[in-house]
Recombination protein RecR
Amino acid sequence: MFFLPKPVSKLIDAFERLPGIGPKTAQRLTFYLLHVPQEYLENFAEALNNLKRQTMTCSVCFNVSEADPCLICASPSRNKALICVVEQPLDILSLERTGKFAGVYHVLNGAINPLNNIGPDEIRIHELVKRVQDPASEIREIILATNPNMEGEATAMYIVKQIQNAKIKNQNESGNIRITRLAHGLPMGADIEYADEITLTRALEGRREF
């Protein structure tokens, strides 16, 4: 029986815990790293070590950032009246690559998925409602950019109901808020993260009332 050295075995186990990494891929990655220069490994280890130490969650939009508020929320050039609701920070990267969106974001950090025990309280829907209800809020349009699958659609519908209920209680004329949904070019079942710039640009430009 072939016994691996403990450092090799531990790294293989660590890679296997990552999503989408199976045993064979974990082994290939580990043995690849065995043959790279030590300086590369040290830089790699430093980047991993600083991943959580030097990042934080923006208290406004809940995106991953180095500062609070994040650069997008703090930017005077962004349109604070236009807020795009996404499931994950990776979706922001995809939308920003289009260069067509000048508003701000709200990251839900997931979608409603009863099969995985993820309900509205497990994601940041209530925080979105609070942003709408804030008397100082400038929001005039909410773009729902959740993924076009069953979970994303259920999340979008729930958000609409919550915003509509918030409008009744709100005293800052939020009844004028327009709620739209990304459309055109995003196929059912696809993820925002994997959409190309042209598809996302058309989806932004072709959004519809929800």
Summary: The chain has two domains: 6-53, 57-209. The longest strand covers residues 79-86. Residues 68 and 145 are 23 Å apart (CA to CA). Residues 57-209 form a domain with the Dna Topoisomerase Vi A Subunit; Chain: A, domain 2 fold (CATH 3.40.1360.10).
